[in-house]
Design a protein that fits this description.
By secondary structure, this protein is α+β, with helices and mostly antiparallel strands. The protein is 31% helix and 27% strand. The structure holds 4-amino-1,4-dioxobutan-2-aminium adenosine-5'-monophosphate and magnesium ion.
């Protein structure tokens, strides 16, 4: 019996006859020779059909096959360093072929297409090698997140997606009708994480989160995946120590496992190789000073206006980009103004206008990939904050209970999967990091 094998495993079958099942990615016609690029999900391999070695009918069918036609081929595996493909280095000399379906004219051809066209054909675009590489890296990022947390004493405790109240800012909520009531799609699992943390010590939730942000930037999705660890008795410093280990593990695993995919993406990995603890840590004050210094040193007035920042304002993309370009690895920015951050963040004891928050900014201009803080654990203070921002106390009664029954200092953060993947893959836009992106102007397909 001829074994049916994966293209990724061809190296194990040198000299043997094997069967491969997949799709025709590309084809070069050299008359008596047909070079077929076949993909099977695990990789792409060159398969060679030689007129003399095949029945006339089989050769002619192969010769007429359209792009993305599905087929099963059988042939001998030959080592050839120059054989193209992923992983490459092996090709198949076809001895038999069976066509499953001849594809209609495929809309995505090797020529250049516009982004909107490709996005409209996202259900087909995911077959292209670039997208294939990105989504394989995404899967490893998710897998490493889970493994690292599971191996380091964190328990996965799921949090709800349908929620009665805001978790972050009340301006970015997707409202839904929940029978007779209003409900919202979760922006974060954090508040529930805090309840779960009191039971398990170190927990994480990991799921899709939703923001009806009207931002049309290269960093924003309306539906994105976030992992959120939450730890009892953690300080801001503990949080940063943990984050740098966690991020380094994710980057390390991607580098170790995905050289081929990073090659497909033509990703220069110089900066990724440098990712190891400790990461630089600067205060918001210092970040503001650095930005204003950069602005002062710039001759271009437009650049100057984009960089200049008044103390108290949140950073925009140009600020984050400029800041991260000053460092060769991810950088922590801590102690943001309390006014620009969420209600639950612990104010600094002798300087309540700033809070015990920390964002991690990825290098090479990628910007914020994690956001977190110490949480307010004093019952009076959290009551005050809730009253101050004017959210409905009733909806948060359960959350306030957490400050009544054995409240402890604690901290946590959220890491956006798509921003992380965009950084690791070196992508100019977040839309390619998730199979079916949801954005301000897109929810098809
Ligand atoms: O900074 P954010 O809003 O933090 C929270 O939601 C906290 N409750 C997390 C926590 O402390 N448990 O979001 C966290 C991360 C950001 O750093 C970013 O990576 C990602 O989530 N993120 C987005 N990614 C894509 N599109 C958006 N619209 C995003 N908003 C946030
Ligand atoms: Mg944030």
């Amino acid at each position: 019996m001829t074994p049916t094998v994966l293209i990724a495993d061809l190296h194990r079958y040198e000299g043997q006859t094997v069967t491969v099942r997949g799709w025709l990615y590309d084809r070069t016609d050299k008359g008596k020779l047909q070079f077929l690029k076949v993909r099977d999900g695990s990789g792409i391999a060159q398969a060679v059909a030689f007129q003399k070695e095949l029945p006339e009918a089989t050769f002619e069918v192969l010769r007429s096959l359209s792009q993305e036609s599905s087929l099963i081929i059988t042939g001998t595996v030959r080592a050839d360093k120059r054989a193209p493909g992923y992983p490459g280095g092996y090709e198949i000399g076809i001895s038999d072929a069976q066509v499953i379906q001849i594809a209609d004219e495929y809309p995505i051809t090797p020529k250049e297409h516009g982004v909107e066209f490709l996005m409209d054909h996202r259900h087909l675009w995911v077959r292209s090698s670039r997208q294939w590489a990105i989504l394989r890296i995404r899967a490893t990022v998710i897998n490493t997140i889970r493994n690292w947390l599971d191996d380091n004493g964190y328990l996965l405790v799921d949090t709800p997606i349908i929620t009665p109240a805001a978790g972050e800012s009340t301006t970015e909520l997707f409202e839904i009708t929940y029978f007779e009531d209003k409900a919202y799609l979760a922006q974060t699992g954090q508040l529930y994480n805090e309840a779960n943390m009191m039971s398990f010590g170190k927990v994480y939730c990991f799921g899709p989160t939703f923001r009806s942000e009207k931002s049309k930037t290269r960093r924003h999705l309306t539906e994105f995946w976030m992992v959120e660890p939450e730890m009892a008795f953690f300080s801001l410093e503990d949080l940063m120590d943990m984050e740098e280990q966690f991020i380094s593990a994710i980057v390390g695993r991607v580098l170790e496992k995905h050289r081929m995919e990073l090659d497909i993406l033509e990703r220069d990995t110089t900066f990724l190789e440098r990712v190891s603890a400790p990461f630089p840590r600067i205060s918001y004050d210092e970040a503001v000073a650095r930005l204003n210094k950069l602005a002062a040193e710039t001759a271009d007035p437009e650049q100057q206006a984009a960089l200049r920042i008044e103390w108290g304002n949140d950073f925009g993309s140009p600020h984050e980009t400029a800041l991260t370009q000053q460092f060769d690895r991810p950088v922590f920015v801590y102690h943001y103004p309390t006014a620009v951050k969420a209600f639950y963040m612990q104010p600094v004891a002798d300087r309540p206008e700033v809070c015990r928050s920390v964002d991690l900014l990825a290098p090479e201009g990628y910007g914020e990939i994690t956001g977190g803080s110490e949480r307010i654990y004093d019952r009076d203070l959290i009551e005050q904050r809730i009253a101050h921002i004017g959210i409905n106390r009733e909806n948060y009664a359960w959350y306030l209970d957490l400050r009544r029954f054995g409240s402890v200092p604690h901290a946590g953060f959220g890491l956006g999967v798509e921003r992380t993947v965009a950084w690791l893959c070196g992508l100019p836009h977040i839309r390619e990091t998730i199979p079916y992106p949801r954005m301000l102007k897109r929810m098809y397909p």
